[in-house]
Design goal:
The chain is an alpha+beta fold and 182 residues long. Helix content is 39%, strand content 32%. Strands 2-3-1-4 form a four-stranded antiparallel beta sheet, sandwiched between helices. A four-stranded antiparallel beta sheet has the order 6-7-5-8.
Length: 182
């Protein structure tokens, strides 16, 4: 786990490549993602030491200019966020209550998932970052109902209302649905 992560979400694939290059040249950060997502957006996600990520982020935003859709600089992300980004969820764990937070941007989903994980004793189940879902993003989480409610509330509280596409809480998901989430 690194000290920080930064994401720049652009509505230009061409500019996205330029932003990624500038961010990597500016400071010693690790590139986690630099690729397109539908509909014609481009994501640049980096991690590293706090100061390096912050400097890299600033240059990326500057180069991105009016092509930036959303952005996120996140110091000290929760450990669960790193695991979800790596696709390392506990597939055998029980799905108790289920919370779903759907956002209009990838940056909003990362910020919301981090806030949710920090607010309550929940487990991030899935993190989908825009690929194949029209540029939207979402995360799902599980835990005791009260914790899921608190986590979803924290995620919503961390985001501007315009960035939230929808939220749902399912107190006890059907076994068939829960089985598909693992």
């Amino acid at each position: 786990m690194s000290e920080a992560l930064a994401l720049i979400e652009l509505h230009s694939i061409a500019r996205g490549h330029r932003v990624a290059d500038a961010m990597l040249k500016r400071a010693p950060v690790t590139l986690l993602r630099a690729d397109w997502v539908s509909p014609g957006k481009f994501l640049v996600l980096v991690e590293g030491e706090l100061a390096a990520v912050e400097e890299s982020f600033r240059v990326g935003v500057d180069i991105g200019g009016d092509r930036v859709v959303d952005r996120l600089f996140l110091p000290q992300p929760h450990a669960a966020l790193w695991e979800a980004l790596a696709g390392e969820t506990n597939a055998t764990a029980e799905i108790e209550s289920l919370g779903i937070v759907e956002t209009t941007t990838v940056a909003a989903t990362l910020l919301g998932a981090d806030a949710a994980a920090k607010a309550a004793a929940v487990r991030l189940v899935e993190l989908q970052l825009a690929r194949g879902i029209g540029g939207k993003a979402f995360f799902t989480l599980t835990g005791p109902l009260a914790d899921v409610e608190a986590a979803v509330e924290a995620a919503v509280g961390a985001l501007a209302a315009a960035l939230i596409h929808g939220t749902e809480i399912i107190a006890a998901p059907h076994a068939d649905l829960a089985g598909k989430l693992r």
